[in-house]
Amino acid sequence: MHNGFVRINSVPTRVFTWGHFVTEKFNENIKELVLVISGNPGLPGFYTTFCSTLYEQLNREAVIWCVGHAGHDEPKKHLNMTVPKLKEHPHLYDLKGQTNHKLSLLEYIPRQIEKIHVIGHSVGSKIILNLLQESPEFNAKVDMCYLMFPTIENIADSYSGKWFVRMRPFFFILKLIVLLFNLLPHKLRYGMVKLYCRDMPEDFLEHCFEHTKLSVVEKILFMASDEMDKITELDEELVKQNIHKLKLYYGKKDNWVKRKYYHKIVERFPEIDAQLCSRDFEHAFVLKSGEDCGEMVADWIKQR
Questions:
Q1: Counting C-beta atoms within 10 Å of the first and last residue's C-beta, which end of the chain has fewer, N or C?
Q2: Which spans are transmembrane here (predicted)?
Protein backbone atom coordinates (compact mmCIF):
# COMPACT_ATOMS: atom_id res chain seq x y z
CA MET A 1 0.00 0.00 0.00
CA HIS A 2 1.19 3.48 -0.86
CA ASN A 3 -0.41 6.86 -0.35
CA GLY A 4 0.47 10.36 -1.36
CA PHE A 5 -0.90 13.65 -2.59
CA VAL A 6 -1.49 14.37 -6.26
CA ARG A 7 -2.86 17.64 -7.62
CA ILE A 8 -6.16 16.73 -9.26
CA ASN A 9 -8.35 19.44 -10.80
CA SER A 10 -6.24 22.07 -8.98
CA VAL A 11 -6.73 20.45 -5.55
CA PRO A 12 -4.03 18.43 -3.70
CA THR A 13 -5.68 15.04 -3.20
CA ARG A 14 -4.55 12.04 -1.17
CA VAL A 15 -4.80 8.78 -3.08
CA PHE A 16 -4.23 5.33 -1.58
CA THR A 17 -2.99 2.71 -4.00
CA TRP A 18 -2.23 -1.00 -4.05
CA GLY A 19 0.10 -1.98 -6.88
CA HIS A 20 1.24 1.06 -8.82
CA PHE A 21 0.82 4.63 -7.56
CA VAL A 22 -1.14 7.11 -9.67
CA THR A 23 1.96 8.78 -11.11
CA GLU A 24 4.01 5.59 -11.61
CA LYS A 25 4.57 3.79 -14.90
CA PHE A 26 2.63 0.52 -14.94
CA ASN A 27 4.19 -2.84 -15.73
CA GLU A 28 3.20 -3.86 -19.25
CA ASN A 29 1.33 -6.94 -18.03
CA ILE A 30 -1.10 -4.90 -15.89
CA LYS A 31 -4.42 -4.69 -17.75
CA GLU A 32 -6.99 -4.24 -14.95
CA LEU A 33 -7.67 -1.41 -12.53
CA VAL A 34 -10.03 -1.21 -9.57
CA LEU A 35 -11.14 2.36 -8.83
CA VAL A 36 -12.77 3.04 -5.45
CA ILE A 37 -14.59 6.34 -4.90
CA SER A 38 -15.47 7.13 -1.30
CA GLY A 39 -18.58 8.50 0.30
CA ASN A 40 -18.77 11.81 2.14
CA PRO A 41 -16.70 12.55 4.21
CA GLY A 42 -14.19 11.64 1.54
CA LEU A 43 -11.19 10.34 3.45
CA PRO A 44 -9.72 7.32 1.62
CA GLY A 45 -7.78 6.34 4.74
CA PHE A 46 -10.99 4.80 6.09
CA TYR A 47 -11.00 2.37 3.14
CA THR A 48 -7.61 0.73 3.75
CA THR A 49 -8.96 -2.49 5.29
CA PHE A 50 -11.55 -2.83 2.53
CA CYS A 51 -9.05 -2.19 -0.28
CA SER A 52 -6.26 -4.29 1.24
CA THR A 53 -8.69 -7.22 1.44
CA LEU A 54 -9.73 -6.65 -2.17
CA TYR A 55 -6.10 -6.59 -3.29
CA GLU A 56 -5.26 -9.86 -1.57
CA GLN A 57 -8.46 -11.60 -2.66
CA LEU A 58 -7.75 -10.62 -6.27
CA ASN A 59 -4.29 -12.20 -5.92
CA ARG A 60 -2.58 -8.82 -6.29
CA GLU A 61 -3.18 -8.99 -10.02
CA ALA A 62 -5.14 -5.74 -10.36
CA VAL A 63 -4.00 -2.27 -9.36
CA ILE A 64 -6.33 -0.56 -6.87
CA TRP A 65 -6.74 3.20 -6.53
CA CYS A 66 -8.86 4.67 -3.74
CA VAL A 67 -9.71 8.35 -3.89
CA GLY A 68 -11.75 10.60 -1.65
CA HIS A 69 -13.10 14.05 -2.40
CA ALA A 70 -11.39 17.32 -3.16
CA GLY A 71 -10.57 19.27 -0.02
CA HIS A 72 -11.53 16.55 2.46
CA ASP A 73 -7.95 15.49 3.19
CA GLU A 74 -5.38 18.28 3.38
CA PRO A 75 -1.59 17.86 2.97
CA LYS A 76 0.79 18.66 5.80
CA LYS A 77 2.44 22.09 5.67
CA HIS A 78 5.90 20.69 4.86
CA LEU A 79 4.59 19.45 1.48
CA ASN A 80 4.05 23.08 0.39
CA MET A 81 0.85 22.23 -1.47
CA THR A 82 -1.74 24.98 -1.30
CA VAL A 83 -5.41 23.99 -1.11
CA PRO A 84 -7.75 26.43 -2.92
CA LYS A 85 -10.06 28.12 -0.43
CA LEU A 86 -13.73 27.20 -0.42
CA LYS A 87 -14.90 30.81 -0.32
CA GLU A 88 -12.91 31.72 -3.43
CA HIS A 89 -13.38 28.45 -5.37
CA PRO A 90 -16.75 26.90 -4.42
CA HIS A 91 -17.04 25.32 -7.88
CA LEU A 92 -14.25 22.90 -6.96
CA TYR A 93 -16.08 21.45 -3.97
CA ASP A 94 -19.76 21.03 -4.83
CA LEU A 95 -21.15 17.82 -6.36
CA LYS A 96 -20.36 18.96 -9.91
CA GLY A 97 -16.86 19.97 -8.84
CA GLN A 98 -16.29 16.60 -7.21
CA THR A 99 -17.40 14.88 -10.43
CA ASN A 100 -14.95 17.04 -12.41
CA HIS A 101 -12.31 16.10 -9.83
CA LYS A 102 -12.80 12.41 -10.65
CA LEU A 103 -12.84 13.13 -14.39
CA SER A 104 -9.40 14.70 -13.95
CA LEU A 105 -8.23 11.60 -12.06
CA LEU A 106 -9.21 9.43 -15.04
CA GLU A 107 -6.51 11.19 -17.07
CA TYR A 108 -3.91 9.35 -14.99
CA ILE A 109 -5.17 5.92 -16.06
CA PRO A 110 -2.66 4.41 -18.53
CA ARG A 111 -3.97 3.55 -21.99
CA GLN A 112 -2.82 -0.04 -21.49
CA ILE A 113 -5.64 -0.59 -18.98
CA GLU A 114 -8.32 -2.61 -20.74
CA LYS A 115 -10.76 -3.32 -17.93
CA ILE A 116 -11.86 -1.09 -15.04
CA HIS A 117 -13.89 -2.25 -12.05
CA VAL A 118 -15.44 0.73 -10.27
CA ILE A 119 -16.64 0.71 -6.67
CA GLY A 120 -18.65 3.61 -5.31
CA HIS A 121 -19.74 4.11 -1.73
CA SER A 122 -22.75 6.29 -0.90
CA VAL A 123 -22.42 9.54 -2.91
CA GLY A 124 -19.47 7.94 -4.68
CA SER A 125 -22.13 5.88 -6.47
CA LYS A 126 -23.79 9.01 -7.81
CA ILE A 127 -20.44 10.34 -8.98
CA ILE A 128 -19.78 7.07 -10.82
CA LEU A 129 -23.08 7.40 -12.69
CA ASN A 130 -22.03 10.93 -13.61
CA LEU A 131 -18.67 9.64 -14.90
CA LEU A 132 -20.37 7.04 -17.09
CA GLN A 133 -22.37 9.85 -18.65
CA GLU A 134 -19.56 12.39 -18.95
CA SER A 135 -16.75 10.16 -20.25
CA PRO A 136 -17.55 7.73 -23.09
CA GLU A 137 -13.90 6.60 -23.13
CA PHE A 138 -14.09 5.66 -19.45
CA ASN A 139 -17.50 4.03 -19.94
CA ALA A 140 -16.12 1.85 -22.72
CA LYS A 141 -13.46 0.38 -20.42
CA VAL A 142 -15.71 -0.14 -17.40
CA ASP A 143 -16.48 -3.79 -16.83
CA MET A 144 -18.79 -3.30 -13.85
CA CYS A 145 -19.80 -0.66 -11.32
CA TYR A 146 -20.43 -1.85 -7.77
CA LEU A 147 -22.57 0.75 -6.02
CA MET A 148 -22.47 0.21 -2.25
CA PHE A 149 -25.28 1.76 -0.19
CA PRO A 150 -25.93 4.11 -3.12
CA THR A 151 -27.27 7.61 -2.49
CA ILE A 152 -28.45 8.08 -6.06
CA GLU A 153 -31.92 9.49 -5.43
CA ASN A 154 -33.81 11.73 -3.00
CA ILE A 155 -31.12 11.74 -0.32
CA ALA A 156 -32.80 14.63 1.50
CA ASP A 157 -35.85 12.42 2.02
CA SER A 158 -33.90 9.86 4.05
CA TYR A 159 -33.92 9.86 7.86
CA SER A 160 -30.43 11.36 8.11
CA GLY A 161 -31.06 13.61 5.13
CA LYS A 162 -34.08 15.18 6.80
CA TRP A 163 -32.06 15.73 9.96
CA PHE A 164 -29.24 17.32 7.95
CA VAL A 165 -31.60 19.72 6.18
CA ARG A 166 -33.22 20.75 9.49
CA MET A 167 -29.79 21.44 11.01
CA ARG A 168 -28.41 23.49 8.10
CA PRO A 169 -29.39 26.86 9.60
CA PHE A 170 -27.35 26.01 12.70
CA PHE A 171 -24.12 24.90 11.03
CA PHE A 172 -22.49 28.16 12.08
CA ILE A 173 -22.66 26.86 15.66
CA LEU A 174 -20.90 23.63 14.64
CA LYS A 175 -18.22 25.63 12.84
CA LEU A 176 -17.72 27.78 15.94
CA ILE A 177 -17.31 24.67 18.09
CA VAL A 178 -14.74 23.28 15.63
CA LEU A 179 -12.91 26.61 15.67
CA LEU A 180 -12.75 26.63 19.48
CA PHE A 181 -11.75 22.96 19.53
CA ASN A 182 -8.74 23.73 17.36
CA LEU A 183 -7.53 26.29 19.89
CA LEU A 184 -6.97 23.50 22.43
CA PRO A 185 -3.53 21.85 22.83
CA HIS A 186 -2.85 19.08 20.30
CA LYS A 187 -2.59 16.32 22.92
CA LEU A 188 -5.93 17.28 24.45
CA ARG A 189 -7.62 17.40 21.04
CA TYR A 190 -6.19 14.03 20.05
CA GLY A 191 -7.28 12.52 23.36
CA MET A 192 -10.83 13.80 22.88
CA VAL A 193 -10.97 12.37 19.36
CA LYS A 194 -9.61 9.05 20.63
CA LEU A 195 -12.31 8.93 23.30
CA TYR A 196 -15.06 9.81 20.83
CA CYS A 197 -13.83 7.24 18.30
CA ARG A 198 -13.09 4.52 20.84
CA ASP A 199 -15.18 1.95 18.95
CA MET A 200 -13.21 2.44 15.74
CA PRO A 201 -10.00 0.59 14.79
CA GLU A 202 -6.86 2.27 16.14
CA ASP A 203 -5.58 2.76 12.58
CA PHE A 204 -8.47 5.10 11.80
CA LEU A 205 -7.79 7.61 14.60
CA GLU A 206 -5.51 9.80 12.51
CA HIS A 207 -8.13 9.97 9.78
CA CYS A 208 -10.79 10.91 12.34
CA PHE A 209 -8.49 13.67 13.51
CA GLU A 210 -8.49 15.07 9.95
CA HIS A 211 -12.21 15.76 10.37
CA THR A 212 -11.49 18.29 13.11
CA LYS A 213 -9.88 20.88 10.80
CA LEU A 214 -12.30 23.74 10.21
CA SER A 215 -11.36 24.07 6.53
CA VAL A 216 -12.11 20.36 6.04
CA VAL A 217 -15.38 20.44 7.99
CA GLU A 218 -16.57 23.38 5.89
CA LYS A 219 -15.93 21.52 2.63
CA ILE A 220 -17.60 18.34 3.91
CA LEU A 221 -20.72 20.28 4.90
CA PHE A 222 -20.68 22.27 1.66
CA MET A 223 -20.62 19.13 -0.46
CA ALA A 224 -23.25 17.39 1.68
CA SER A 225 -25.54 20.41 1.45
CA ASP A 226 -25.23 20.38 -2.33
CA GLU A 227 -26.03 16.66 -2.35
CA MET A 228 -29.31 17.39 -0.55
CA ASP A 229 -30.25 19.90 -3.23
CA LYS A 230 -28.98 18.08 -6.32
CA ILE A 231 -29.58 14.35 -5.71
CA THR A 232 -33.33 14.20 -6.21
CA GLU A 233 -35.15 11.97 -8.70
CA LEU A 234 -33.34 8.90 -10.02
CA ASP A 235 -31.93 9.39 -13.51
CA GLU A 236 -33.76 6.38 -14.92
CA GLU A 237 -32.54 6.93 -18.47
CA LEU A 238 -28.91 6.85 -17.32
CA VAL A 239 -29.56 3.67 -15.33
CA LYS A 240 -31.28 2.10 -18.34
CA GLN A 241 -28.37 2.95 -20.65
CA ASN A 242 -25.83 1.33 -18.32
CA ILE A 243 -27.93 -1.34 -16.65
CA HIS A 244 -25.62 -4.18 -17.72
CA LYS A 245 -22.73 -2.45 -15.94
CA LEU A 246 -24.43 -1.83 -12.60
CA LYS A 247 -24.63 -3.87 -9.42
CA LEU A 248 -26.34 -2.12 -6.52
CA TYR A 249 -26.05 -3.18 -2.89
CA TYR A 250 -28.60 -1.68 -0.50
CA GLY A 251 -28.57 -1.73 3.29
CA LYS A 252 -31.30 -3.48 5.24
CA LYS A 253 -31.39 -0.55 7.65
CA ASP A 254 -29.75 2.55 6.19
CA ASN A 255 -30.45 6.03 7.52
CA TRP A 256 -29.15 7.60 4.28
CA VAL A 257 -30.91 5.33 1.76
CA LYS A 258 -34.50 4.24 2.27
CA ARG A 259 -35.11 0.54 1.78
CA LYS A 260 -38.00 1.41 -0.51
CA TYR A 261 -35.47 2.64 -3.09
CA TYR A 262 -34.25 -0.94 -3.47
CA HIS A 263 -37.80 -2.19 -4.07
CA LYS A 264 -38.51 0.74 -6.36
CA ILE A 265 -35.51 0.15 -8.64
CA VAL A 266 -36.04 -3.62 -8.98
CA GLU A 267 -39.69 -2.98 -9.79
CA ARG A 268 -38.78 -0.35 -12.37
CA PHE A 269 -35.93 -2.45 -13.82
CA PRO A 270 -36.64 -6.18 -13.21
CA GLU A 271 -33.42 -7.13 -15.01
CA ILE A 272 -31.16 -4.98 -12.81
CA ASP A 273 -28.58 -6.62 -10.54
CA ALA A 274 -29.62 -5.19 -7.18
CA GLN A 275 -29.27 -6.84 -3.80
CA LEU A 276 -30.54 -6.12 -0.30
CA CYS A 277 -27.96 -6.70 2.42
CA SER A 278 -28.64 -9.75 4.58
CA ARG A 279 -25.61 -9.36 6.86
CA ASP A 280 -26.42 -6.20 8.83
CA PHE A 281 -23.62 -4.13 7.28
CA GLU A 282 -23.96 -0.46 8.19
CA HIS A 283 -23.98 2.41 5.71
CA ALA A 284 -20.43 3.30 6.79
CA PHE A 285 -19.37 -0.32 6.22
CA VAL A 286 -15.66 0.51 5.98
CA LEU A 287 -15.45 1.30 9.69
CA LYS A 288 -16.45 -2.11 11.05
CA SER A 289 -16.98 -4.48 8.11
CA GLY A 290 -14.23 -3.52 5.68
CA GLU A 291 -12.75 -7.00 5.52
CA ASP A 292 -16.09 -8.79 5.07
CA CYS A 293 -17.23 -6.36 2.39
CA GLY A 294 -13.84 -6.57 0.68
CA GLU A 295 -14.18 -10.34 0.41
CA MET A 296 -17.74 -10.01 -0.86
CA VAL A 297 -16.90 -7.50 -3.59
CA ALA A 298 -13.80 -9.47 -4.59
CA ASP A 299 -16.05 -12.51 -5.13
CA TRP A 300 -18.31 -10.43 -7.35
CA ILE A 301 -15.35 -9.29 -9.44
CA LYS A 302 -13.92 -12.81 -9.74
CA GLN A 303 -17.28 -14.08 -10.99
CA ARG A 304 -17.16 -11.73 -13.97
A1: C
A2: none
